[in-house]
Amino acid sequence: MSNQIKNTCKGVMLGMLAGMAAAAIGLWCLKNNRRGIRKNIGKALHSIGNLVDNVTNMF
Q1: Contacts of 30 (CB under 8 A, 6+ apart)
Q2: Longest Cα–Cα distance in the chain
Q3: Which one of 25, 35, 37, 59 has the minimum C-beta count within 10 Å?
Q4: pTM, two decimal places
Q5: What is the number of domains present in the chain?
Q6: Cβ of 29: how many Cβ atoms within 10 Å?
């Protein structure tokens, strides 16, 4: 039981570390290229919305 808890904690910590690294890289890119990043984020969000709609229509 304690082994499962340790492994879960390790996974959570690794996920948090990966998230912080991704956020740091994202902020760095945003400072260098604000307009291009915002445009790409808008396209990505639109694509994700379409994907979610398609998946919900399947079910």
Answers
A1: 37
A2: 50
A3: 59
A4: 0.49
A5: 1
A6: 13
The whole-number pLDDT of residue 16 equals: 92
pLDDT for the residue numbered 52: 87
Residue type, 9: C
Nearest to 44 by CA among 24, 26, 28: 26
Radius of gyration of the chain (CA): 18
Structural domain harbouring 52: 2-58
Alpha helices in the chain (DSSP H): 2-32, 34-58
Could you tell me which residues come within 8 angstroms of residue 37 by beta carbon, excluding any fewer than 6 positions away?
Answer: 29, 30
The structure tokens listed for 30 are 């945003």
**Token representation of residue 29:** 């890119």
d(CA 50, CA 52): 5
